[in-house]
Amino acid sequence: MNGNLLNGGEFLLADTAGMEIFSPEEFTAEQKQIAETTEEFMKKEVFPNIDRIEDKDFGFVVEKMRQCADLGLFLAEVPEEYGGLELEKTTNMLMIEKVAPAASFNMAFSGHTGIGILPMVYYGTPDQKERYLGKLSSGEWIGAYALTEPDCGSDPLSSRTTAVLSDDGRHYILNGTKQFITNSAFADLFTVFAKIDGKHFSAFLVEKGYEGFSVGAEEKKMGLKGSSTTQLVLDNVRVPVENLLGEAGKGHKIAFNVLNVGRLKVATSTLGMAKGAFAEAASYATERKQFGKPIGTFGAIQEKLADMVAAIYASETVVYRVAGLLDSRLATLERDGDDYYERYQRAIEEYAAECAIAKVFCSEQLDMVVDEAVQIHGGYGYISEYAVERYYRDSRIQRIFEGTNEINRILIPTMLLRKADNNGSTLWELVRKAQAGVATETACTGEFAMAAASIARLKQLFLTVLGAAAPAKEHQEVMLAVADMIIAIFALESAVLRADKTIAAASMSKQDLLRAVVTVLVFELSNRFQSAATRCCAYALKGEELIELLKRVATLTACPAEGLLVAKHKLADAAKDVGRYSL
Amino acid sequence: MKILVCVKQVPDMESRFKPDGSGTWFEEADLAFRMNEYDEYAVEQAVQLKEQLGNEPEVTVLSIGPDRVNEAIKKALAMGCDRGAHIQDPAPQGKDPWQIASIITQFAQGEGFDLIFTGMQSQDRGSAQVGVLVAELLGFACATTLVGFAYADGVITAKRELEGGIKGIAKLRLPAVVTCQLGLNIPRYPTLPNIMKAKKKEILAIPVADLLKEEAVASTARFYPPARKGGGIVLEGDVGNLVEQLYGILKEKTTVLR
Q: Molecular function (GO) terms listed (chain B) (predicted)?
């Protein structure tokens, strides 16, 4: 445990100097082995059979899921008393990253191990766990989660599915339709949300064999074609009262609490997919020749490869920083006591904003990566025979999963402001200081002191703009822009902290690459910040105030970025050399 | 029964290799390392034998190298070996197969092993010497390039892969050394529960200086990339003509049609 574990959102208010982050360079031998087992399994059993999976051979998917279970891949978040391993979030993310390039299979895998199993882990009674958890963790049964409805997506509490207690008090009778349910074709147990008496939002464990329960036809989707997605129809389904999950009327806790880590998992999946798509692009760029030389030697392609490497480095850093934050906080919890999972949820909720940041940032980095990966392939990138075509299609939904990126963006400043209201006035004090022009200093020294100084200026600017724009916060457009500023700061700070932490032990050539990636990210993310800050000011301010603040935005985000071209060449050359992401 | 398995950690063979500063080995920085493929067959066979004998044998896994080789040892422990021996050596690549074999022998002499499994060769150096040298130094029977293994009543029946695709059967009495070839078995994946359990297994740490008594008898003169070859040949013409051309090449330049 480090002494300076930040609370959620505090990174915005504190000096980058002295912040501890977990970085992938710190994986233990066990974590690496778990990654190797997962990766070897995927390489031998799943990746060669992607076509079969994409053709919806669900029997094959279930067979491979059972093999995952045999390897213990479903045990990461299962409690020890039920045969699980309770691994760190960092380990769990590492596993998901390895599964992710087979995006359809990852839906089965992550749907089962995440939203399929976790509601029961967190809220199940000993009897429910006894009856179902072993079956789920052994892969005998596959789990699914049914929240969304045809008319109820981003606003889950508007659910129309109803539950009515039977006259004899032994069953809840469920009626309604659920939409876009992952794994439904082969799942055996569904966590279904419904309102008791049309009022009290609650969760129920529904077995597929219950009378009146039926699964609709497969949706025809843009991507993730090998993942099962259907409607569920509940027609007077009698669910035993023992299968009410958690308390009646407290379903929102279940629905929202699995979303925090769920968002980090989506971020992790997009990281794994980005690495997969990048490997295709990097190797294609070295093989494909035009005008007598490999296209990867042309600046137009090198620039793309370099930007993709920087995006993946930033994503990877963000994912494991957030996972590390969760682990650090969870490690402080006493394991004993009936309220363990309640405290566990609170510990995770502390970093709800960080989880949302990771989800938005990483899913959008993936979109950029797959887009450029197709572009590098030229016309072949549009042909299904090439893997990038699938990555491109599978990417798009990631910005919609676990709360659209718009919902997530709005959550980020909302949570921050709510905290500020609850915890006294630190935030507003700092805002006033920043508005008064008190320059934010950083105690960062060393190799990346300049980058850290840039981050300090961005933080000061963020506070200034936030203060100016706060009166207009009822406009979602303003909140989205504020979120973009926060995301840029978090991603840039994470990357700089990681590079700073790891450079001393790195080889000479790796050191060069770390300097290069920081140069690219300072440039890229300062620019993104600048764009968001400018937009935010334009939405919220007018007259002199607007002009004055825009001047400050321009001054404080200015980024000379000398050596940017050389830095990009270095990143691109290194990537072509190994044919995949390897920073 | 006491069993020893010797494993080496080698770079991922999909890496791009460059000569290092000394010009006698490759640059190791930034390479990913993993267990030598042939050694995985050795570990798997040792664990299968342990299981066959009702878990009675104790299986020790040994590796020589810097701290990173603990990862290979831990993998073997997660696959089912009982204890590890890490022979700490920051620069094993500077030692020739004779020295490596003598280090293993020094370790083995104090332990009383009945059976030693090694890979047929390492994927990086590929000398295929260490196993047979250990057998010679210990005075053990030895069979190499195993593609089949059976054990009953103190006798090993080894199916060996010989030149030209021929197989041979050898019977050996314990104590013995066997070296394992591709096709012997399918190594298991270490399961997550076993990976976590392996954390508790003992790994001895022994400085290589305690075991190294021999001078090298061979040295690496130079490590360099092969000369660049010309590109491949592209045959052109109609199918009949292509077949004739290809037939001609196969007949003249290869042994396929002789």
A: electron transfer activity
